[in-house]
# Entry
Amino acid sequence: MPNFDFLVVGSGIAGLSYAIKTAEHFPEAKLAIVTKSDENESNTKYAQGGIAVVIDQIRDSYEQHIQDTLKAGDGLCNLEIVKIVVTEGYDRLNDLLKWGVDFDKNQQGGFDLGLEGGHTENRILHHKDLTGYEIEKNLLEQIANMPNIQVFSQHFAVDLITQHQLASKNEQLPQQRQCFGAYVFNPFTKKIEIFSAKITLLATGGVGHIYQNTTNPTIATGDGIAMAYRAKAQIENMEFIQFHPTALFHPQTVPSFLISEAVRGFGALLRNKAGQLFMEKYDPRKELASRDIVSRAIDSELKKSGDECVYLDCRHLDQKAFENHFPTILQKVNEIGIDLKKDMIPVVPAAHYLCGGIQVDAYGQTSIDNLYACGECSNTGLHGANRLASNSLLEALVFSHRCYLNSIEKFKKTQMPEDILPWNEGNAKEPEELILITHNRKELQTIMNDYVGIIRSDERLSRALNRLKILFEETEALYKRCKISTELIELRNMISVAYLVVRQSQKRSENRGSFFKIGSI
Ligand code: FAD
Ligand code: SIN
# Structure
């Protein structure tokens, strides 16, 4: 049974930046990073646009970034948290620079600041259109040089360990739950092992794959949220799924390839199939309105016209400058035969970001003692009903720092139990047919796409819930009789998370930000 002082689940920006700080602070402590795929596979790796930070206090101001965040969040942001994230951003940016992350500069030698939807000023630091890749690479390089961190790639966290998994559990359980680590599936031994730790951080990212069309890589199945939910942590704001307006419309590319919002910030225009501009009908900020507004505008155009996609027009832009800023996007569209000088890029909205998640306080503490959550899996109050573009990398950095500050104190006060029960495998057998899992995953994704998309209704939500109940029962039956596989645990987690999205959508009684329900409201 591996024993650690700190257990980090997830190797995106949230988990890695937390691990670096904590390992530096406690050189004697043992840290484990458990991550279910290759160590760099994460939403972080694919971030294109960049990170929003106020660095130019003459043209820009904290107050402006705060107001932009509040406006995008449509009245549901937590003002205290917004202020914290915006004003602490500059120090966290300096952490990234210290760790070797390189951001593009302009001709004057200052940072080249991009513009994205909902921002009233250029404030997006970026590394071409590969910002996330640059961040992930440098953070992993730091980790590789830290002897007290052990990275367990291809290891899958299955469930949290709380008092309920102690041999002494029959004694009076305290009211407040406490976390002592996690059960982790080791694919090499095919066993579920105990990874015990005084402090556990969930940094498991988003939920994009509960939808058929998503910009997220396949790791985004909401595992951390489902684990926390099973352990009875508080989960909030799951109804606020952000759809990115401009995913490349190319059904052969799965997951969908993102055409960064920064491309619209650079001057690209949205047109319908007839070649008409349409955004001015929906918002005076046109292409640079916040994402919820642009996604709904596109959805409405597509419903009216019956077309499959709209188009992003870059033909009028400086092609050399475009190539310099967006080399990856250019390469991808060229690969599928699009010449930006002559052709427009076909785009559709796709599930992109979860604004809610595991409820945390201003220091990333969940409602379970010794359990922290950070990054996309958490609900800090920053995003409210809709995240402002490029605020999530920023949020992950600010909160991983705050989790670090709080958890190093908590660590000193924590005693570990010695009677954690091993995982009970019972009489589980190998699953007879994988189709029972793969079909249900596809069915779940179709249900969510068709009934729980950009525009929802009570009828669609109740149909979704009925169908989810069937998937839930079938999957629980499989789970009880079959040996664990990553496919089965992911499916189980995706069903839980989809259920939370649907139930919390049913409960919301007003349209806000990325949540829009027709009919009964
Ligand atoms: P992730 O980076 O997703 O990392 C999650 C980690 O958890 C992964 O390593 C995963 O393997 C691991 N994991 C998950 N479940 C388990 C499990 N059960 N066991 C073990 N490990 C597990 N945001 C911005 O601010 N700016 C941008 O420009 C931007 N562009 C984006 C472009 C794309 C295409 C996408 C998809 C997102 C973009 N975002 C952007 C959003 C941003 O990238 C994410 O919100 C952020 O990177 C999330 O970081 P994270 O550390 O919370 O999670
Ligand atoms: C993008 O580059 O459009 C994504 C930015 C984000 O999700 O914040």
Q: What stands out?
A: The first strand starts at residue 6 and ends at 9. The CA atoms of residues 113 and 288 lie 16 Å apart. The chain has 13 helices and 19 strands.
